[in-house]
Design brief:
This is Glutaminase. It is an enzyme of class 3 (hydrolase). Belongs to the glutaminase family. Its EC number is 3.5.1.2. By secondary structure, this protein is of the alpha+beta class. It has two domains: 5-66 and 199-303, Beta-lactamase; 69-196, DD-peptidase/beta-lactamase superfamily (Beta-lactamase). The protein contains twelve helices and eight strands. Strands 2-1-8-7-6 form a five-stranded antiparallel beta sheet. Helix 4 packs across helix 8. The protein starts with a helix and ends in an 8-residue tail after the last helix. Bound molecules: glutamine. Residues 66-67, 99-100, 117, 161, 168, 196, 261-262, 287 line the site of glutamine.
């Protein structure tokens, strides 16, 4: 991190108090359990490449990871199968559509990218499922190594999504009907729900983003979670697709690879510099945390974090 450490702490605190009063946005309610979140919760966390942790507000409050899991499961698929094999089944083009859109290429049935639900369901399906190493066990181990501590599942949120997840099931059936995918996306969608229900904090998400920024090595534990090229591939897809139909505007204004989730988690990564996370559950129309977007956007401006900006 090039800005002085005191400047980071001051900036996080200042942004927290500046945006804590913003009451715009809605709680996600299509997964009923998510509508029970505290609309006032707001936490910010940043982790540098030397493992320094900076945080303010509700950075230790638990919530479910939701779509912020997608880049990390994509990283696992890339690690196990390689970019060429994964790309046969899920593309890397921005869809310009909402997270739950029917984003499938007309000719091949391949999802547009691994950040939208259709692509994430395929990514999850690609993770091998064997008696010795079940698919979800592999995913939970991987997410935990990115976070640097053992994570667990919020069973209430899982049950709530499993009870109401018919749109994602419909996407899985559609994928199965149109493509020659060698694995069954319909079975895998239940694992996808479980992956989305893994419990994290903003500090965990900052560690996960920092691991991607640090070339795949967790800066807190020193654990090499994925190879350097995999970390770069994931950051590239986050930069172009991580914010769904707001990805272009985000890259233009904030200038960092990022990923949002409907429980209010939001990560951004500064390659070779930092991992950043926000938690605040009031969402805008794209399903992104309103306060998180404001705070990370302003932090990028304040500290000159835009990747295309070279002073
Ligand atoms: N589990 C949620 C879903 O599939 C994740 C969506 C999100 O966070 N954007 O609908």
């Amino acid at each position: 991190m090039s800005p002085a450490t005191g400047a980071v702490t001051d900036a996080l605190r200042e942004l927290h108090s500046r945006y804590a009063g913003v009451g715009e946005g809605e709680l996600a309610d299509y997964i009923p359990e998510l509508a029970l979140a505290d609309p006032g919760a707001f936490g910010l966390a940043l982790i540098s490449m030397d493992g320094h942790r900076y945080s303010t507000g509700d950075a230790g409050a638990p919530f479910t990871i939701q779509s912020v899991s997608k880049p990390f499961v994509y990283a696992l698929a890339l690690s196990l199968l390689g970019l060429d094999e994964v790309s046969r089944w899920v593309n890397a083009e921005p869809s310009g559509e909402a997270f739950n859109a029917i984003s499938l290429e007309r000719s091949t049935g391949r999802p547009a990218n691994a950040m939208v639900n259709a692509g994430a369901i395929v990514t999850t399906a690609l993770i091998p499922d064997t008696p010795v190493a079940p698919r979800f066990g592999r995913i939970l181990d991987c997410l935990s190594r990115f976070a640097g501590r053992r994570l667990d599942v919020d069973e209430e949120v899982y049950a709530s999504e499993a009870a109401t997840g018919d749109r994602n099931r419909a996407l899985a059936y559609l994928i199965r009907s149109t493509g020659p995918l060698p694995v069954d996306p319909v079975a895998a969608v239940e694992t996808y729900f479980r992956q989305c229900s893994v419990r994290v904090t903003a500090l965990d998400l900052a560690a996960m983003a920092a691991t991607l920024a640090h070339g795949g090595v967790n800066p807190l534990t020193g654990d090499r979670v994925v190879a350097e090229p995999v970390a770069a591939q994931v950051l590239a897809v986050m930069a172009t697709c991580g914010m769904y139909d707001a990805s272009g505007d985000w890259l233009l204004r904030v200038g960092l690879p990022a990923k949002s989730g409907v429980s209010g988690g939001l990560i951004a990564a500064g390659p070779a510099r930092f991992g950043l996370a926000a938690y605040s559950p009031l969402l805008d129309r794209t399903g992104t945390s309103v306060r998180g977007h404001l705070a990370i956007g302003m932090l990028s401006e304040r500290l000159g974090l835009h990747l295309m900006y070279n002073p």
